[in-house]
Write a structure and sequence with these properties.
There is one protein chain. With 408 residues, this protein is α+β, with helices and mostly antiparallel strands. The chain is built from 16 helices and ten strands. The chain is 41% helix and 16% strand. The radius of gyration is 31 Å and the shape is elongated.
């Protein structure tokens, strides 16, 4: 028995003693070829769309979205499959991506993205990883089909020609402009612009003098009482308020704005005739004559609507105002410049009027990574620096410094 065990041991530890060199080389070659074939077969199997949508997480969440896009069904009959976009085509990058994908597999196994709700909550993380990968490799997978050198720009729509020629000149990554082209964009509510943390920190240290005017650095709820227990509405970022008093953790502020004399008049605007949303009150409060005082009434000659100049007082949480609006506009200006110039040259702020900007901005913001807070402050920045205020801005004034109308 000992001799038998010794022979077996020598067979594995000293094969050349028992087996000829030719047999060893041939056996090693066959074993290596078999291992490579098995590895390659497994690699090919995991590159099939059937494998990608084999789990309910992908099948139930991402497949229905893809099926609604031109990448699934189009006039040419050419369809992009999951690996075409999400698996690099060269071997080294493919192996690296497979290793990274193990995180998604693990997330499915342990239930991190096991339900629709969990998937939507975690989607921003998954999307940002893919956006970063596409940004790093210049959207190489996209350009296996959509390469700039093969594009006939003259056959594009005029508006597309400008954007695509500029992108080709810069050799720009496709996903910079085309996020959401095959899947829904994630909700950005979980994201936050870190620049606002600086504003909030500055607001916490802002010295407050009763009777002076200040500007909201972030949206706030409005309350009827100083213990902040009865919510009556909300106030938007960069809205000007007069601080009347501070009591504990609350401040009583005076709002002086405009509203349209129709319906409940819940939405209050910063200027007469201009749709710059500054506050929204609950409908019961908006019609409370004891709380809301009407100072003036005018008809907008452009729309025929009657507008009311109104004022009211309310309580809000302290530590959320600055004595200058410029730090807020600095963040908005930088966000507009960086986020909205990725796809094309962004319009000048004064190129459009105040009431045109919301529709235009709404069409653009979906192609950016702006979170909700940033999008709201950028829109307000564009509206208050529009053609309606161009003279005021060039003169250094603030469009919310008074209740004076910016229109004749």
């Amino acid at each position: 028995m000992k001799r038998l065990i010794g022979r077996i041991k020598d067979l594995f530890l000293k094969p050349s003693v028992r087996i000829g060199l030719g047999v060893l080389v041939t056996g090693g070659f066959i074993a290596g070829a078999g291992s490579w074939h098995g590895f390659n077969t497994a690699m090919e199997a995991t590159n099939k769309e059937e494998f990608c949508i084999g789990c309910h997480t992908m099948h139930d969440n991402l497949l229905p979205e893809l099926q609604k896009t031109v990448h699934w069904n189009n006039r040419s009959g050419v369809r992009a499959r999951c690996p075409d976009c999400h698996v690099p085509h060269n071997f080294t990058d493919k192996i690296a991506r497979k290793m990274q994908a193990s995180r998604e597999v693990w997330g499915h196994l342990v239930g991190t993205i096991g339900t629709r709700e969990k998937f939507k909550e975690h989607r921003i993380v998954l999307a940002q990883r893919e956006w970063a990968r596409f940004a790093a490799n210049g959207s190489k997978e996209c350009r296996a089909c959509h390469d700039y050198k093969d594009m006939d720009f003259d056959k594009m729509r005029p508006t597309s020609q400008v954007a695509m020629r500029n992108a080709a000149t810069r050799n720009q990554s496709c996903v910079d402009c085309h996020k959401g082209i095959a899947h829904q964009l994630p909700e950005m509510k979980g994201a936050r612009n870190p620049a606002f943390d600086t504003l909030v920190s500055s607001a916490a240290g802002q010295s407050i003098d009763a009777g002076k005017s200040y500007y909201l650095v972030v949206p706030q709820d409005l309350y009827a009482d100083d213990i902040l227990s009865k919510r009556i509405g909300s106030i938007e970022v960069a809205t000007q308020v007069k601080v009347l008093e501070t009591k504990g953790e609350a401040q009583r502020v005076e709002l002086a704005l405009w509203r349209k004399n129709k319906g409940y008049g819940r939405v209050w605007y910063g200027q007469f005739g201009l749709n710059i949303t500054s506050a929204i009150l609950d409908k019961e409060v908006a019609k409370d004559a004891d709380l809301v005082k009407v100072l003036d009434t005018r008809e907008d000659p452009l729309t025929g609507l009657e507008w009311q100049q109104v004022t009211a007082t309310a309580w809000m949480r302290k530590g959320s105002v600055l004595d200058s609006v410029e730090p807020i506009w600095t963040i908005a200006r930088a966000s507009y410049s960086t986020s909205c110039s990725v796809c094309h040259r962004q319009p000048e702020e004064a190129h459009f009027d105040t009431n045109t900007w919301p529709g235009l901005f709404g069409g653009m913001v979906g192609f950016t990574n702006m979170d909700d807070d940033t999008a709201r402050v950028v829109l307000k920045y564009l509206q208050t620096h529009s053609s309606d205020f161009s003279k005021t801005q060039h003169g250094g004034g603030s469009p919310e410094s008074s209740l004076q109308t910016a229109r004749p």
